[in-house]
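Example 3.2
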Amino acid sequence: MFFAAGVAIGNDDLLILLGLAGQYIGNLGVFWLVARFKEDRDVGLTIHGGDLGYIALGLVLQIALALAFLPLSNLLFPDGTPPQQVADVIANAETTLMKVGLVLAAVVLAPVTEELMFRGVLLRALERRGRRFALVMSALVFASVHLLGLDIDQLWRSAAVVLPPLFILGLLLGWLTQRSGRLGPAIFLHSGWNLLAAFVLLLPPELVEQLS
């Protein structure tokens, strides 16, 4: 419905934004249906004021892992960086409104919907087979899903660079959820992780070239 509305209007930027809105609303719809038929409907969607501090932790973690895997990235991609879905989409946006909309999706909608799905539903469902098993498997699924849409010709190279940091992120998000018993810390850490790339891509191209 959202995609069709964008096509009818004929605006490419609006088409992408409406498509994203439809995707996230669809994800929330699936989550709602799954949660509705669960015996225990509590997924831990509780947020405390102190959770805001996890945004900084997400930023630091993103920088640290980017530096740690930089040698491998340079080795596998000597002509550039591996394709990142969020980064590519925002970087190719032609208008400020489009970029702002995509950044909001990356730092607000994506963390909320993905944490509801991967930590609120999947992690809790897998815990029937053990907390450690659930932690590892949910992190692996979380990391693997982010490979969808990448160029198949260089998928293995992208996976070698993209999967390990996302797997580590997934482990930390799952551990925080298990430790706190709620999704607040994971949502804000996830938001901080996405925020760094989104912020850099909002800067004017001339300034980015000066800083690089």
